[in-house]
Amino acid sequence: MCAKKVVGVLGATGSVGQRFILLLTDHPDFELKVLGASPRSAGKKYVDAVNWKQTELLPEFAKNIVVTECKAEAFKECAVVFSGLDADYAGSIEKEFKEAGLAVVSNAKNYRREVDVPLIVPIVNPEHLEIVGQKLDAAQKAGTGRPGFIVCISNCSTAGLVAPLKPLVDSFGPIELLTATTLQAISGAGFSPGVSGIDILDNIVPYIGGEEDKMEWETRKILGALSDDNSTVVNLPDEQMRVSAQCNRVPVSDGHTECISFKFKNQPPPSLEQLKKSMNEYVCAAAKLGCYSAPKQTIHVLEQSDRPQPRLDRNRDNGYGVSVGRVREDPVLDFKMVVLSHNTVIGAAGAGILIAEILLAKNFI
Amino acid sequence: MCAKKVVGVLGATGSVGQRFILLLTDHPDFELKVLGASPRSAGKKYVDAVNWKQTELLPEFAKNIVVTECKAEAFKECAVVFSGLDADYAGSIEKEFKEAGLAVVSNAKNYRREVDVPLIVPIVNPEHLEIVGQKLDAAQKAGTGRPGFIVCISNCSTAGLVAPLKPLVDSFGPIELLTATTLQAISGAGFSPGVSGIDILDNIVPYIGGEEDKMEWETRKILGALSDDNSTVVNLPDEQMRVSAQCNRVPVSDGHTECISFKFKNQPPPSLEQLKKSMNEYVCAAAKLGCYSAPKQTIHVLEQSDRPQPRLDRNRDNGYGVSVGRVREDPVLDFKMVVLSHNTVIGAAGAGILIAEILLAKNFI
Amino acid sequence: MCAKKVVGVLGATGSVGQRFILLLTDHPDFELKVLGASPRSAGKKYVDAVNWKQTELLPEFAKNIVVTECKAEAFKECAVVFSGLDADYAGSIEKEFKEAGLAVVSNAKNYRREVDVPLIVPIVNPEHLEIVGQKLDAAQKAGTGRPGFIVCISNCSTAGLVAPLKPLVDSFGPIELLTATTLQAISGAGFSPGVSGIDILDNIVPYIGGEEDKMEWETRKILGALSDDNSTVVNLPDEQMRVSAQCNRVPVSDGHTECISFKFKNQPPPSLEQLKKSMNEYVCAAAKLGCYSAPKQTIHVLEQSDRPQPRLDRNRDNGYGVSVGRVREDPVLDFKMVVLSHNTVIGAAGAGILIAEILLAKNFI
Amino acid sequence: MCAKKVVGVLGATGSVGQRFILLLTDHPDFELKVLGASPRSAGKKYVDAVNWKQTELLPEFAKNIVVTECKAEAFKECAVVFSGLDADYAGSIEKEFKEAGLAVVSNAKNYRREVDVPLIVPIVNPEHLEIVGQKLDAAQKAGTGRPGFIVCISNCSTAGLVAPLKPLVDSFGPIELLTATTLQAISGAGFSPGVSGIDILDNIVPYIGGEEDKMEWETRKILGALSDDNSTVVNLPDEQMRVSAQCNRVPVSDGHTECISFKFKNQPPPSLEQLKKSMNEYVCAAAKLGCYSAPKQTIHVLEQSDRPQPRLDRNRDNGYGVSVGRVREDPVLDFKMVVLSHNTVIGAAGAGILIAEILLAKNFI
């Protein structure tokens, strides 16, 4: 067995950073050695720098790591750097890391819309990582050093949406129209300050800043195709797929529920049974590659009338599996159904880990 | 000032019955004298029969009323009987009451789909009560006695949906396509057993039995027209209005939030400003009639990006006003917006009271 | 009828400030004219400065008041200034106001422990306001100008605790030992940031910084006596009353529940019936003075086995009444019972208003 | 390795029964073969009989087990029968099973107060199982057949309370006075109907029928001693330990929080550090016996000021570990602290499994 790859985490004291640390504990491929955080935390032991707020205990191995500032120099031995940085800091820091030749897998939104930055839901579009392969090949041919790169994790609500769409468009062609109303968990908003208790107890907040635009835009990138030379992603044009999102924050700790309706371009549409079969039989590429965190069952199609439910179903396949229920015909578009995904796993830190596993399986790191 | 009309309540110990009693306390038009409940409760003082679960105290006047069985004879002096009966009992009891010449305003679903039974959201379609007027006229002409009748209150999620649609179809013509995803409060499910705590805490239940069908069907009746002779309601045909509902139960005590999208038949559609103006300026007929419970402002169009919210906005106009927010263009249909209504007021007992006030204003009782 | 007294509010944009404004709307004795907030808000109309988060709409009268900085000069026409300032600012600002001859009723903790500052739960110890009377008399005799003063509102969890204790100690003598475990609502923590949603959903936080010490200390001041010359309050000595508090934050929006046990110094203790009668018959001095906000029933002793409950009972007497239930013998001390009080009314802004009404009734303002 | 012992579950479709099934999945010592439920379920496959409501999926092995009625004959090959029956049925059924020579580990309350029935918190008083050993010895000597017996699991709130008390009384002698206020999760109330959502959302219910009496009584049995001949348990007399409980239901899914105060008989009491050390170093007998489910750390003494919290700490040691925090001196008794335990694990089904593991380790089954 090969030695584990050394990895690091940026924004290690934040909510996404804490999740990266948990998911990297006892990971078979990666060894977490470098933790970066703000200058306020740098120089302290991690256990003293962090306000740990996870349901699992702070792993022993992480306690005594001395937190460093987010400078590329400190991460130079890392095969991958996972970034849980806030958008306010991610822009410049991730750029510095990339320019220093490092591989960054980022949960921040800053570079998601760059055409040469893969925006990845690892159970959906790992083929977009070929952009990285192309960069590596080009550098090798040019005889220049190994280039750094950034891969972006999608927005959490987008991840849940596109997972079941992928096998559907593969099997039945383009989805022309799509509406999605989300009921999103509060863990997605982080800790500081996150969603205030008085704002969400016995309440719904029918607005999440920027979220609807992200879902509408990112969906068309993730389901888009690579350019011929594998150097960029070409978003689905608006006329091939129009998406409308309505995003709500609900009093749920983890797990985004999405009520979606959609219409295929090709008519007549498939049957309900074909639809369900397509999702049920979908095996994501990460599973085929044997990645450690890949879900055994990518999409769970549930037949009980009142499922999926976040409290009961969010942890399928350790949060890497997506649950779909109530698949039925829609009087307005073709079909409607309910999708549930774990926002901090497949929608954030967990996706980052699986992306890195795929990068490793493809020898891109 | 005229004497108050004597009224009664069926199903008086249940959750809807308790709300009827509260709303009838110190009512200027009605005096509640008769409380009907199951044989188990009959013969007891109301205070001893009820498990009172309201935020207001059990009104003094009701405490010592001796509960009667749900037999028409006991209610014969009532100008109106409000029914909060469960569907299991409402069918036969309400029929008996009607046949005994009584006026019944019912929250039960049993007779909602009868063509000659008005299905009323009092801030939307009180004109459908002309069916009652026509019955009374016909009886008078025929010299037969005053006929009994049933008026049905709509389903709670339907009430919130149709309220803002009414001024829109009045102003801009038919709505051809409509999708609605609801986030419904648990108070709508009653007490026994209602929604279990363990099912709804930190959770969403993406299913409410029969609810989606009710919303899709009732909307087309409420927005339908009277037949020429005012004897029946003609539902909007499916091709004039296709409705698709997705209903969810959420951990909110009171107040249904609905995320809706819709497309007008007439194109191009109105502007956003026209849309908002139409809703803001809508004055319901009950307000024009001067009914006691009618909302001062029927529809509140909110401009803050994160409103309406159930905890903050459900009590507008004592729960008789409906709040609309986030009115914006929709990439798939024409517009999308968020609607909030108080499910136990305009969606249940409160609607019944306002219907009775309208019946009184029209001299139908 | 006399003209209303002009009043002002400090910290007007915060959660306590917003509650002061609501409670002063259409108040028969007071007219709110001056709103003070941070320099960031000063100069703006209140409607533009505030992030209004109340279940009632922002009152019309307040919308166009131009917010001023918290300088005494701007409040000089105010008979009373209500302070909802954070402790970080209250110390210096309230001192300046007092020195400028203004009457300040403050929700901040800064001056609560000064021996010549009355710490008031208005339904419990308004007689401590005689300290103010003594100051006014002294100034009059000395021929100096009307002196300013500060009156402090108690901590919210203390208010609920001492309310039922007052008639008990009046009737049955000192309470020697008292334990209280609180289940406190999140509204008490304010908005910015307040309690985070992810910290309190499906959770209990068994700690509120400083709260236990406040309860243990303030209880002994509020139940203490005036010095002979009415110039200071003498706390109950520790040996006359030992209090132990355990404070928890729970997922409840409004209403503090407290499970208390206590032992009287005089043995044998009263009977259960005497205990309940004493609380039920207690009429607070504010009610006797005819104050507008005084509760009709100060303490509601409930006989149902599962009451009081915050959602059902917190609004008794508009939140000025305290509910007590489950009064029973205690195997360890003498008695145990459950107390419920509305933390933002009798435990914060509401108490301030009632204190001012008492000051007015006593001609101290 | 020995063959696994065959076991059965009574009340298999209920909430406790479902938990037994999950905990017996892939258990190294036990093989679950027989599922008993009501006549309504008997004859059906388990998957068709149950309304499965767990966060883990229904285990494959259980799906096709045909449910049987709760008759001893059907369970005769079982080394242990776990009972999750409701109290209404447990009395007669468990008696029948015992008389048929079966070993029953029951979560029902029916036999807890029998002097010859061990009432066991497996991390606290497994030595009380010697009553079973004594019965077996006696039968062997008498040459009669292997006798059946019942072992009772304690009430969930009692389990959390006694866990930290055990090392304290072992180290420092009797606890003379103890007060406990509980904040109990709703999962303890089961499904049908359990706690209603509308009763617990944004609310506290300060009453759980019978619970306080159970805590006060059971604590004195569990901490009591065996009689000289090991045939019965002798409760601690009231004068050696007086317990006062106040029980509340709170909006938490799993995990009971208890705020306790206590006073030792021996004065002066130990120091805070001695107290914490005693709890931290406690190793339960089940761990020494090497039982599969025994917690690695029986009691986790937490030093952070705001812990334990149910959402963060309830799953320590898979729910078999108990967390204690805020250990501090108490102005009224000697000490106060907060205890958190997982009510469905150490307080119900999980305790039953660990009891059976201990019975096996002691060769009592």
UniProtKB/TrEMBL annotation, chains A, B, C, D:
Catalysed reaction, written as an equation: L-aspartate 4-semialdehyde + phosphate + NADP(+) = 4-phospho-L-aspartate + NADPH + H(+)
Name the GO terms of the biological process aspect: lysine biosynthetic process via diaminopimelate; methionine biosynthetic process; threonine biosynthetic process
Annotated pathway:
Amino-acid biosynthesis; L-methionine biosynthesis via de novo pathway; L-homoserine from L-aspartate: step 2/3; Amino-acid biosynthesis; L-threonine biosynthesis; L-threonine from L-aspartate: step 2/5
Q: Which UniProt keywords apply?
A: Amino-acid biosynthesis, Methionine biosynthesis, NADP, Oxidoreductase, Threonine biosynthesis
Residues forming the catalytic site: 156, 256
Its function?
Catalyzes the NADPH-dependent formation of L-aspartate 4-semialdehyde (L-ASA) by the reductive dephosphorylation of 4-phospho-L-aspartate. Mediates the second step in the biosynthesis of amino acids that derive from aspartate (the aspartate family of amino acids), including methioinine and threonine, the latter of which is a precursor to isoleucine.
Q: What's this protein's name?
A: Aspartate-semialdehyde dehydrogenase
